[in-house]
Structure formats: structure tokens, C-alpha cells
Write a structure and sequence with these properties.
Spore Coat Polysaccharide Biosynthesis Protein SpsA, Chain A, seven-stranded mixed β-sheet
Length: about 325
């Protein structure tokens, strides 16, 4: 029954050259899932007729980039538009038809019930019709790494089928252009936002190969860079302490031989190169730890700036 959820749900569909599938995805979205539903398509610089197909299929808003900016930029634009539209819940779903729009109600339910700020549609907890072996392995590895760095247990960190509460939309600040899937999880975990998962169906792709993952190596390289930058941004002291501590430990290991010889003979003559290496490792390790302390002070400024930005968004 229309209006079963007495809130406004904005459904964001990032799309890049998806003229063959965008219309069917839009038409599969039920307008009865909430009191008010608006469909927003972010056309990420498509060179085909994605824009016109989305309009014809009934999208309420189509934001069009002049050139391809990346999934991260498209997601950022989707959040901004959802805030402008006073959305209570934002749902993201891919434009290639692999996620089933009929599963949107169960995705938003934990948000509506107040049990989660972010809900991930997990393909690995649900049903996968088709996924190439290399992508399956890549997704599982990326999920393990993201889970470890975020300090939470999740089964699918790469999913593009997600729901966000109004609070999550206000608190998340995206920096990466290439993709957003890992960054949002690590950032949300560090901001103490509640993350939940629901099983979802992952259907066979229609309309050719993935536009985002043209190369598995390229995707992995970019994803790793985003994960490391995000973790460093929110855990600078911990990161530099680990790195500096490892370098100091290496210095201790290399210096033990010199120390033992010195205690036995009172000389370091045969081990000049090792002595120099030990000194260099100690100096570098100490400097890295000092950098961590400075980064931690800068992190305090970031927190203040994000709080100001949060209040501005809320107003």
C-alpha cells in the first residue's frame, strides 16, 4: 500500500553509458515503498543516450556531468541532492540491473526501524547468479581488508546496493572520485555510525561489461589507495606508530649483533656498515613517530571542521 513507510526515500542511481539498462532499473522501482519516493539519476558523463533514457523512464531528477568523474563523485552528488530534497533515507543502486529494485523495502527497513545508519545489501549472504571468479576473489579480499581496517565484521564491502539514514548523509564526507564503497565503511565505523547487512540478490549483468571495473588490476590499485588514504585520515597516530615502531624494531634487530660484539670486545670495528644502518633506522623510526604525533594534532582540526560542516548541512 502506498505510503506504508511515512518518510521520504530518495533512490540514487549512478550511471555511466548504461542506455541499455537504465530505463528498466527505473521502471522496476516501486513508488509504493514510502510516502514519498524520488528517483535521482547521476549521469556520470555518459557519451550514449543514458540521460534521455532516464528522463523517458520517469526519473524525477537527472544530474548530468559534462565528463566522467568516477563513481565516488557520482555518489557525492547523490548525497548532496538527497540532502537538498530533504530525504529521510537515501538508497543507492547500480544502473546495470544486477541488483533487484524489488528488494529496496528490506534494505531500508533497518534504517526506518532505527536499527542502522547504513545498510549494505550483501551479495555473499544472499544469492549470486553470476560473478567472474577473479572478481569474486577480489571482492572477498577487499572485504576482509576493509573489515579489518574498519574494525567491524561484514560480508560484502564492495556492494553498490546500500541505504543511508539522514544522519549518515550529514556525517559522511567523500574525498575519493574513483569509488566510494570502502571509504564510506571505514569512515562510518570511525564515526560510530551503525552498519548492518541484509542478504540481496545479485543478478547476471545485462548490457555488456562493467563500466567501473574495466581492469581488475586498475580497480585494485585505486581501491587500495583509497582504503589506505581513508584509514590514514582517521587513524593517523595509530598508522604512524605502527610504521615507526616497525622501523625501530628493525633497528633493534640489526643493532643486536653490534651490541653483543661491543659488549664482548669493546669495539664495533667489524660492523661499521651495520652500525650506520642501525642508527639510520632509529632516526627514521623516531621521525615517523613524531610525524604521527603531528598528524594527530592535525586530526583534531579535521574533527572540528567536520563538525562545522555537519552543522551547516543540518541547517
Amino acid at each position: 500500500m502506498r505510503g506504508e513507510i511515512g518518510m521520504k526515500v530518495v533512490i540514487c542511481i549512478p550511471a555511466y553509458n548504461e542506455e541499455k539498462t537504465i530505463a528498466s532499473v527505473i521502471r522496476e522501482i516501486s513508488r509504493d515503498i514510502a510516502e514519498e519516493v524520488e528517483i535521482v539519476v547521476i549521469d556520470d558523463g555518459s557519451t550514449d543516450s543514458t540521460f534521455s533514457e532516464a528522463k523517458k523512464a520517469g526519473a524525477d531528477v537527472v544530474v548530468r556531468f559534462k565528463k566522467n568523474r568516477g563513481l565516488g563523485s557520482a555518489f557525492k552528488a547523490g548525497i548532496e541532492k538527497a540532502i537538498d530534497l530533504d530525504a529521510d533515507v537515501l538508497v543507492t543502486i547500480d544502473a546495470d540491473g544486477q541488483y533487484d529494485p524489488k528488494e529496496i523495502p528490506k534494505l531500508v527497513k533497518p534504517v526506518i526501524d532505527g536499527n542502522a545508519d547504513i545498510v549494505l545489501g550483501s551479495r555473499f549472504a544472499g544469492r549470486i547468479e553470476e560473478m567472474p571468479f577473479q572478481k569474486r576473489i577480489g571482492n572477498l579480499i577487499a572485504t576482509r581488508v576493509t573489515s579489518f581496517l574498519a574494525g567491524i565484521s561484514i560480508s560484502d564491502a564492495q556492494t553498490g546496493f546500500r541505504a543511508f539514514s539522514g544522519e549518515a548523509m550529514l556525517q559522511l564526507n567523500m574525498f575519493a572520485d574513483y569509488t566510494y564503497v570502502q571509504e564510506t565503511i571505514i569512515q562510518a565505523a570511525n564515526k560510530r555510525l551503525l552498519i548492518a547487512e541484509v542478504p540481496c540478490t545479485f543478478r547476471k549483468r545485462r548490457g555488456g561489461d562493467s563500466r567501473l571495473i574495466a581492469s581488475t588490476f586498475s580497480y585494485a590499485k585505486n581501491a587500495v589507495a583509497i582504503v589506505l588514504k581513508t584509514y590514514l585520515r582517521y587513524k593517523p597516530l595509530k598508522t604512524f606508530l605502527y610504521i615507526g615502531g616497525f622501523i625501530l624494531l628493525a633497528g633493534i634487530v640489526t643493532g643486536l649483533r653490534v651490541l653483543i660484539h661491543y659488549m664482548q670486545t669493546g669495539l664495533v670495528t667489524p660492523y661499521y656498515p651495520t652500525t650506520i644502518l642501525t642508527a639510520i633506522l632509529f632516526i627514521i623510526g623516531f621521525q615517523v613517530i613524531v610525524l604521527g604525533l603531528l598528524a594527530d594534532l592535525i586530526d583534531g582540526n579535521r574533527r572540528i571542521e567536520e563538525e562545522i560542516l555537519y552543522r551547516l548541512k543540518k541547517r
